[in-house]
Amino acid sequence: MNARLHDYKVTSDSETARLLREAAASADPIRVDTGDAVYRVDAHETRKPYDPERMIQAIYASAGILKRAGVDAEQLEKDIYADRTQNSTGRPAE
């Protein structure tokens, strides 16, 4: 089933938000009774939208981390190349 998602905003301190947090934490669906109808809601948290600026900051923050950790870059490159020349399940050596 390819359902289209519809976004609805609720304030974080509302009763609705509290119920959804509880449902997401328990991983059990909830039933919402409006008096007119009963609705089943599968509540689970979703990731926040991708933030390219934040990703760029993370990349810059991680620059040089292998060197600072004492990794020998030349040996790492040799190891990667050696691994790529070995046959492995699903990926034969070229």
Strand content: 5-15%
Strand line-up of the largest beta sheet: 1-2
Mean pLDDT: 83
Report the end-to-end length measured between terminal Cα atoms: 40 Å
Approximate helicity band = 40-55%
Stretches where pLDDT is under 50 for at least 5 consecutive residues are: none
Number of helices, where a helix is a run of at least 4 consecutive DSSP H or I residues: 4
What order do the helices and strands follow? HEEHHH
Structural class call reads mainly alpha
Strand element count:
2
Give the C-alpha Rg.
24 Å
Q: Globular, elongated, flat, extended or rod-shaped: what is the shape?
A: elongated
In this structure, how is the largest beta sheet organized? 2 strands, antiparallel
Number of domains: 1
